[in-house]
Amino acid sequence: MLRISKLTDYSTVILSEMARQKSQSFTSSELALATSISQPTVSKVLKLLGKSSLVISSRGVNGGYRLADNPEHLSVARIINAMEGPIGITECCTTSDTCEQYGQCHISDNWGVINRAIENTLNTISLADLVSPAESLVNMASITQQKPEAQTSHRTESKESIELT
Amino acid sequence: MLRISKLTDYSTVILSEMARQKSQSFTSSELALATSISQPTVSKVLKLLGKSSLVISSRGVNGGYRLADNPEHLSVARIINAMEGPIGITECCTTSDTCEQYGQCHISDNWGVINRAIENTLNTISLADLVSPAESLVNMASITQQKPEAQTSHRTESKESIELT
DNA sequence: TAATACAGTACCATTTTAGTCCTGTTTATG
DNA sequence: CATAAACAGGACTAAAATGGTACTGTATTA
Quick check: is A1 in a domain? Predict the structure, then answer.
């Protein structure tokens, strides 16, 4: 299904809740309430995000979490990276050496190119984009464009090649 | 990690082996030998691909599998779709109704946009591209471009926002 | 010193995935 | 028409990943 994990999904919900509110600091209980995610799970997610310094925590009474940077400067790629580690659509994209097929595989380089293309997409989208109306994101030409420009490579016509709903 | 499954990975290796050879028909044993993937696994993959009519099988002596269409007309998105079902980077991209957060979630629409962007990328790349030298793919402007064009939305500068290797 | 809130880790249940095997069915061929 | 080659369709198991929770510890404020 090519899916981010549920915890990663939660992290985007939690972070966008933080980005949407003007408040500076949030406890995990507050965010649990606001997102309908259980408090222990919210806590787990925020701890992970803290390790990569996407959020900053303060302990004790009146403690909580706050965003480490402006939502404009936090990309979706970094969020995924913090929760799941480096984006690698195939095994060889991240581990490169452990694959048994290595040497007789003719496509690992191309998977690397594909992986970087997806990284680029996710890197281009910020937390601020995530909380903006969907129209804004659709209008980001670099995200949704499908240019029919001249090039050497064979291309699949997108119309006939997909029946995803 | 945002990864395709191992079986899906195998499927791309197997299909590209079929695309590279001029031969028309391949038995699962031949492909197992050529790819260093075990024969039962190759067989399992080809059966799955057959269900979505990406390959055509013929039984009996001299039977085997052949590509259902030219490599130029088979997109990576369709391969993933055949092996794993619809591409959905989040749960709400595919199932839409079962999510508990539905109603109070403010970002599902935007995840839909992101999902379509990734679909577009994977849809643009064909099996023929996968077996071509990596340079060809890099030169596909629609895949790797990162346009800094004017737009309304906030953008993350790709340089500072990512430390993936 | 007591209460609040995060830190770190461990744990377990569930689900998913990978890989194999077995029992059909189809087809070419001698 | 018998036999062997090859795919079809499940069933099954082991291993791994994931999700969710709990527990103990530490920092901070009042």
Answer: no
The domain in which residue A104 lies consists of: 6-142
B80 vs B156 pLDDT, higher one:
B80
Give the DSSP H or E segment for A55. Answer: strand A55-58
Report, as an integer, the average pLDDT of A151-163. Answer: 39
Residues in chain B closer than 8 A to A96 (CB atoms): none
User: Does residue B150 belong to any structural domain of this protein?
Assistant: no
Chain A within 8 Å of B142 (Cβ-Cβ)?
A: yes
Q: Is residue B149 assigned to a domain?
A: no
Specify the pLDDT at position B28.
Answer: 98
Contact B100 A73 (CB under 8 A): no
Rounded to whole angstroms, the distance from the CA of residue A152 to the C1' of nucleotide C26 is 43
| Confidence (pTM) | 0.89
pLDDT above 60 for A148: no
The CATH number of the domain holding residue B133 is 1.10.10.10
Of the partner residues B20, B136, B142, the one whose CB lies closest to the CB of residue A149: B142
Burial of A20 (0-12, 13-18, 19+ CB in 10 A): middle
Is the C-alpha dihedral spanning B92, B2, A77, B117 positive or negative? Answer: negative
Q: Give the pLDDT confidence of A36-57 residue by residue, as tens digits.
A: 999 999 999 999 999 999 999 9
Specify the number of domains making up chain A: 1
A38 Cβ contact partners less than 8 Å away, ≥ 6 residues apart: A32
On whether residue B161 sits in a domain, the answer given is: no
* Portion 40-59 of B in contact with A at CB < 8 A: none
Q: pLDDT band for position B128 (50/70/90)?
A: very high
Enumerate residues 6+ apart whose C-beta is below 8 A from B103. none
CA gyration radius, chain B: 19
